[in-house]
């Protein structure tokens, strides 16, 4: 039995009023366990595609399947449930709540999972330990470095154990060293089974990932997979 792809876009298009075609008939399949870089110039449609993949936005044409479910057949509430269960998001500017400590920021990742506060916090502590922040539990965002903030955001995205992590320029606001730590973390998460799509402007980061999808003017212009060296893990 072959499992359904995690993501399947078929002729997915997204147009805005005024004739902006942010996505033009994109076909993309992401299989379980992949680690995909999405690259391309500013305005080429990368974030639009990630939002459509993540069901934050619906396509105007074509179909999007997440974990085998056709998104167009789901009501908004079913879609929110699908998203809460399967997908974690990470953004360039972290999107952490100011004035709330790391534990509570991460615990918020379980708000829609029907888990009691005490357990949400317990699981948040575990997730923070998982990203190496066990000594920063009670720090608020303004008491954390950029790289630490992004690790908190990653812990929040993962605390519900989604199969898919979507990251839009997760290193875009970080210095090289902090960015490298975040990318190392994404590699580790992928090695332990999380499927990941990451938008990046950084060619070196993209080159280090096993699959690269390149965008231009709302279309995929190339999709390349690195050969796995023999003797690689897995
Ligand atoms: N809500 C909107 N209304 C109208 N046009 C939009 C909207 N959102 C995005 N666009 C347009 O769609 C195109 C694709 O935008 P998108 O944000 O996907 O680009 P991107 O590749 O992520 O760029 P960047 O690298 O700068 O983040 C752009 O031309 C943008 O101006
Ligand atoms: Mg973008």
What's this, in brief?
With 234 residues, this protein is of the alpha/beta class.
3D structure, described in words:
The chain has 234 residues and is of the alpha/beta class. 31% of the residues lie in helices and 26% in strands. It is built from 7 helices and 10 strands. The protein has helices at 46-53, 76-86, 102-107, 117-130, 146-158, 176-191, 203-207; strands at 7-16, 20-30, 35-39, 61-66, 69-70, 87-91, 164-168, 195-199, 211-216, 219-225. It has a 6-stranded mixed beta sheet with strand order 6-7-8-3-9-10, sandwiched between helices. A 4-stranded antiparallel beta sheet has the order 2-1-4-5, with helices on one face. Helix 4 (117-130) packs across helix 5 and helix 5 runs parallel beside helix 6. The longest helix is centred in the C-terminal third of the chain and has 16 residues, at 176-191. The protein is globular and about 45 Å long. The two termini are 20 Å apart. Bound molecules: adenosine-5'-triphosphate and magnesium ion. Adenosine-5'-triphosphate is lined by residues 16, 20, 22, 40, 42-48.
Descriptive labels:
single chain, 234 residues, alpha/beta, 6-stranded mixed β-sheet, 4-stranded antiparallel β-sheet, 7 helices, 10 strands, 26% strand, binds adenosine-5'-triphosphate, binds magnesium ion
How is the secondary structure organized here?
Layout (H helix, E strand, L loop, with lengths): L6 E10 L3 E11 L4 E5 L6 H8 L7 E6 L2 E2 L5 H11 E5 L10 H6 L9 H14 L15 H13 L5 E5 L7 H16 L3 E5 L3 H5 L3 E6 L2 E7 L9
Parallel strand pairs: 3-8, 3-9, 6-7, 7-8
Antiparallel strand pairs: 1-2, 1-4, 4-5, 9-10
The structure holds adenosine-5'-triphosphate and magnesium ion.
